[in-house]
Amino acid sequence: EAQVTQNPRYLITVTGKKLTVTCSQNMNHEYMSWYRQDPGLGLRQIYYSMNVEVTDKGDVPEGYKVSRKEKRNFPLILESPSPNQTSLYFCASSSSAGIRGLRQYNEQFFGPGTRLTVL
Amino acid sequence: GESVGLHLPTLSVQEGDNSIINCAYSNSASDYFIWYKQESGKGPQFIIDIRSNMDKRQGQRVTVLLNKTVKHLSLQIAATQPGDSAVYFCAENIGPDSNYQLIWGAGTKLIIKP
Q1: Cβ <8 Å between A56 and B44
Q2: How many angstroms separate the CA atoms of A44 and B47, rounded?
Q3: Do A50 and B107 touch (CB under 8 A)?
Q4: What angle do CA A113, A95, B60 make, to 5 degrees?
């Protein structure tokens, strides 16, 4: 089954304790992205990756790191989490970002979400 | 900065009726728009998209209308069903200068009343 998976789904941690949220897709997608979702703010992009070893900042990158060592995985790293990073996080992937002319060229497939609480 | 916005945060519709969810955008360079549906506890799911060279696009029970003159986008859902209850997001893509990133609206919650 084609899917985007995230782990963990729920995490409660304390300020300053490094954590990693994993994201994996089995659709051979080039493009992957991390979003955070907060009430009333919709989805805001944290980081994205156009392909392996290519990552770029989104709208709210502060306090986050990512890596894209292989195509299927795009982990999100919080080196020193703070309470303002308490949020719902979504990973997404797409097959054709930047390739225009396709019918659904920018359709992104989302993971189930990771609810993070930082105390 | 420019952003996508929504007129109504919550919309209640009787089951079987049609619903219309509205979205305003301000970036004139946007040339591609998408509607996503997010059910409780799940990630967003693609519904329908439309390019700026179109005014209307229809899917199964859904229609997206684009009015570029007033920078307005709407999603119409025909004969709503309980499974349509969700938060609906519009998103715009402002083209190559932004690496084709999506800008998301805040979302509209659709409630289907039995």
Answers
A1: no
A2: 19
A3: no
A4: 75
Residue written as token pair 């105390």: A119
Nearest-neighbour CA in chain A from B63: distance (Å): 16
Identify the three-state secondary structure at position B38: strand
Identify from B87, B93, B101, B108 which residue to disrupt to test chain A contact, counting A C-beta atoms within 10 A and taking the largest count. Answer: B101
Interface test with A, best of B34, B87, B100, B108 (most A CBs within 10 A): B100
Burial of B93 (0-12, 13-18, 19+ CB in 10 A): buried
Locus of tokens 């209307």: B56
Two tokens, residue A18: 């490094």
Give the pLDDT confidence of B56-108 residue by residue, as tens digits.
Answer: 999 999 999 999 999 999 999 999 999 999 999 999 887 655 555 788 888 99
Instruction: Please report, as a single letter, which amino acid is at residue A22.
Output: T
Two structure tokens written together for B64:
């997206």
